[in-house]
């Protein structure tokens, strides 16, 4: 199953959201863990692909030297 999210940055925190979930955290690793925890609590088993697309309109000024697609994230995991 693929789950798509928008990844943003505001008020010194990362924000990851879709139509049914919003996560705010201090690091991208915390975002990843929160998504995994959400999936573990809401699905019994399956293969999951998580895609996060960065919202360039909220790209932090201190990252302007990088291209926004560098912050797109994609990871997979499964629950047996």
How would you characterize the overall build of this protein?
The chain has one domain (2-79). A 5-stranded mixed β-sheet has the order 3-2-1-4-5, with helices on one face. It is elongated and about 40 Å long. The protein has one helix at residues 28-42, and strands at residues 2-10, 13-17, 22-25, 46-54, 73-79. The chain has 80 residues and is an alpha+beta fold. 19% of the residues lie in helices and 42% in strands.
Short description:
With 80 residues, this protein is of the alpha+beta class. It has one helix at 28-42, and strands at residues 2-10, 13-17, 22-25, 46-54, 73-79.
The count of domains is 1
Strand order of the largest sheet: 3-2-1-4-5
Task: Encode the helix/strand succession as letters.
Answer: EEEHEE
Report the C-alpha radius of gyration, rounded: 13 Å
Describe the global form: elongated
Describe the largest sheet: 5 strands, mixed
**How many H/I helical runs?**
1
Number of E-type strands: 5
Provide mean pLDDT, rounded.
87
The proportion of residues in beta strands is: 35-45%
Distance from N terminus to C terminus (CA atoms, Å) equals 14 Å
pLDDT below 50 for ≥5 consecutive residues: which ranges? none
Overall SS class: alpha+beta
Describe this protein with a few key phrases.
80 residues, alpha+beta, 5-stranded mixed β-sheet
Give the SSE layout:
Blueprint: E1 2-10, E2 13-17, E3 22-25, H1 28-42, E4 46-54, E5 73-79
